[in-house]
Specification:
The protein is of the alpha+beta class. The protein has a single domain, classed as Nuclear Transport Factor 2, Chain: A, CATH 3.10.450.50. About 15% of the residues lie in helices and about 50% in strands. It contains 3 helices and 9 strands. The protein has helices at about 40-50, 55, 75-85; strands at about 5-10, 15-20, 25-30, 60-70, 70-75, 90-105, 105-115, 135-145, 150-160. The chain has a 6-stranded mixed β-sheet with strand order 5-4-9-8-7-6. Residues about 1-35 have low confidence and may be disordered.
Amino acid sequence: MPEFPLRECGFGRLGHIETRDIVSGRVLGNSLGGLHMTRDDFYRYIDAFNNRAYDQLAPYYAASAQLELPGFTLEGPEGITGFYRDFHQYVREYIEVRFLVADENGVAVELYTEFECHRDYPNEKLPFKRGETRRLLNFVHYDVENGQFQRIRVARYRQYP
């Protein structure tokens, strides 16, 4: 059986995530992954998303970023923010972090998502009808390099009635 280093995650100074080797106590990292990505940065990203601040979202995505949603993939900051600019004209979307774990390479979250459709959304890959509400719990993994999201993978865990 291969051996894996034991690690624990906790909150260090200034609200950053701190990862330590359990045996030595040595700090392995104190950010949410990559250079310059802090816990506060991640929550600012969530806040910008919920407030439809697309110009504030774009810098979080690397030039070659990929967002893998169930059924389709979006590429690059313009592709990702362009999709959401259009989608949010039809559907109000709200996201909330329920659980977060991070290390020097990325972030993993349980993300509660609520959709309320106020106009029929004419996209066959993600159909929504006016008046429809969906509540989901998703697992989302963010690969971080140089303080930006390189790859985001979204998997549905639960759909609520």
